[in-house]
């Protein structure tokens, strides 16, 4: 299968933050931004794959700064990594104050998407051609995140499988701001 360069599927969505997108604090709702990120990830991944893609997991959604109504938000997406049937789209979110022209980087997230063929079966995606040192850095970072996630997943599975509720738990939770009050 022939590879596709990162630039082939690089995608940007730009959207004005209107009052309908606000939460009770008057800032743009985090769920609204997540929905836009999912949309741009879908477009970027599907373009690279040549097939529609579904979202499987999202890494590291951290809202580092609030987004204000009236700001112009750009979602810059590119394929960072490809596996066999999955790919990772990195999304950088930039908010711009239209009047001052000041840009703020509000968050970066990584969406893992899986390609599906028209029959709904998972499909192989084309290899990725890295065209810059940034592309290489992002690819290597995605590999590292994948390794960390695999490690965390197996660690948490072991933890869940071996969890025992006994007197040591009270000690474990000693400095936590919780108390145990289990009704029979
Ligand atoms: C995504 C989905 C097709 C994977 O099914 P599956 O039977 O695990 O498929 P496969 O075993 O063939 O795995 C396909 C790829 O998905 C990856 N994958 C599966 N689960 C994953 C997870 N939790 N996190 C990251 N990658 C995952 C596998 O590593 C594999 O990648 P690779 O081919 O690049 O090595 C299936 O879980 C699904 O349909 N989920 C629902 C997706 C959806 O509807 N999203 C919208 C949410 S509303």
Descriptors:
184 residues, alpha+beta, Thiol Ester Dehydrase, Chain A, five-stranded antiparallel sheet, two-stranded parallel ribbon, 4 helices, 32% helix, 29% strand, binds coenzyme A
Mind sketching the topology for me?
Layout: E1 4-5, H1 6-9, E2 11-16, H2 30-49, E3 52-59, E4 72-82, E5 86-96, E6 103-116, E7 128-129, H3 133-161, H4 168-172
Coenzyme A binds near residues 57, 83, 84, 85 and 114.
Strand proportion: 25-35%
Which hetero ligands occur in this complex?
coenzyme A
Number of strands: 7
Q: State the helicity in percent bands.
A: 25-40%
Order of helices and strands: EHEHEEEEEHH
CATH architecture assignment name: Roll
Q: Major β-sheet, in short?
A: 5 strands, antiparallel
Widest β-sheet, arrangement of strands? 2-4-5-6-3
CATH class: Alpha Beta
Query: What name does CATH use for the topology?
Result: Thiol Ester Dehydrase, Chain A
Mean pLDDT: 94
Structural class assignment = alpha+beta
End-to-end span in angstroms? 61 Å
How many domain units?
A: 1
How many separate helices? Answer: 4
> Which regions have little confidence, pLDDT < 50, spanning 5+ residues?
none
